[in-house]
């Protein structure tokens, strides 16, 4: 097939790439980069690009561009049929042009604008199931030589490998999302939610509750509205050795006082006008398991005494009965009120507060753990995509930048609502900033992530994130290091390296 016999170097490279394609699905970007680098080296291209076709607008985007002007090339996109690459994508056929000035398909604009003289181009399609999904092109063969038939055949083989890598990555991503969905469905079946977290602050708290899995001490969860207190309570239960037993939720603010008492402790027939029969309360239902008392700060004073007794002796009576009942229940309470203030104001019993507060856990607001934003946003996107049946894949980098820089006064709940709205209104595959309709605010916006390498964006994010944490902690490095979950010495090194200034 090859006129000049098979080149061993090329064959070895192909085998190497093939092994990677079949073993590593987690880094498709890195793999494509390797494929293009090898292909460029072996076909002696001076520069090269890998373009992907976006089906939603039929445009070709430069995914990777090698060569001295690579970063500039990446700002451009091509319509189907436009330029050599556009022709290749439209016709799904390879093309060798050894003198671009003689070929009117060549688009001189880009080459002129970036100041990169182009003489010859070899461009081949990448195909998945015979459909063109992108183009690989080589620019200028080294030494002024022309690209030949051998070069074309080899590049087609590399393009096949690249397409395979893309196809693998896409099905892998789909499968992973499917797994999350199924997990979600299984846990939701029992009323539990998937708990998403990436930040050191949250992971640290989860580790702590793992260590306390066997204790039955009460837990008081504090945190702003929408920060995830209820989900955290679920995790405490699921990670405890009561996880096979019931998890019973009660919202202390949702019912009037009299009803709340009977809801919590049950009643006997005739205890009050509507009590037609005996009824078990939530504490009895929770026997052996966990009871979650949400908005405990709203518990009326009269019931606080009864609650204190349950905490002290695990006993209580149903309303209208004098027979004490005994239960084995772990209590988790939550509030977004300043409960110490309520104690000081005489609205909450001090002794009950101490009893509940054996193990206080503070769920930090979302703005103090921004690493949780991307996985949470993606999680909600997948959920609402399923509900709306829309084909939304992710967030554009500008939209993600907005999500990361926003201050989230309504915390995770607000993020959830923003993503839901965006999925409903968006008309593109990637959610755009305007779909999110966030109020202006936040502090991470001065510099843009767009057009930066991953490494630069990560450093930029680190810089903003650390600066934000320092700000939140009044520039106390010890406190900031604790929040960030790193050593103080490491923090001060990062401050220097990333040139973070007050
Ligand atoms: N870690 C998380 N992973 C997935 N979803 C989350 C997470 N944290 C919060 N949520 C979602 O955000 C919403 C708010 O969470 P939750 O009800 O637990 O907050 P809360 O602190 O109890 O709020 P409030 O004080 O208003 O009652 C819920 O819909 C929940 O599903
Ligand atoms: Mg709640």
Could you state the CATH homologous superfamily of the largest domain? GAF domain
Give the overall shape, derived from the CA principal axes: elongated
Q: Give the helix/strand class.
A: alpha/beta
- Strands, total number: 17
Task: Give the helix level as a range of percent.
Answer: 40-55%
Strand order of the largest sheet: 3-2-1-6-5-4
Taking the alpha carbons of the first and last residues, their distance comes to: 65 Å
Low-confidence stretches: 441-447
Strand content: 15-25%
Detailed description of the structure:
Helix 14 (373-388) crosses helix 16. By secondary structure, the chain is of the alpha/beta class. The protein folds into three domains: 8-174, 2-Layer Sandwich (Beta-Lactamase); 200-364, P-loop containing nucleotide triphosphate hydrolases (Rossmann fold, 3-Layer(aba) Sandwich); 367-497, Orthogonal Bundle (Helicase, Ruva Protein, domain 3), CATH 1.10.8.60. The protein has a six-stranded antiparallel sheet, sandwiched between helices. A hairpin with a 4-residue loop joins strand 1 and strand 2 (59-66). It is built from 20 helices and 17 strands. The site of magnesium ion (MG) has 3 residues, from helix 8.
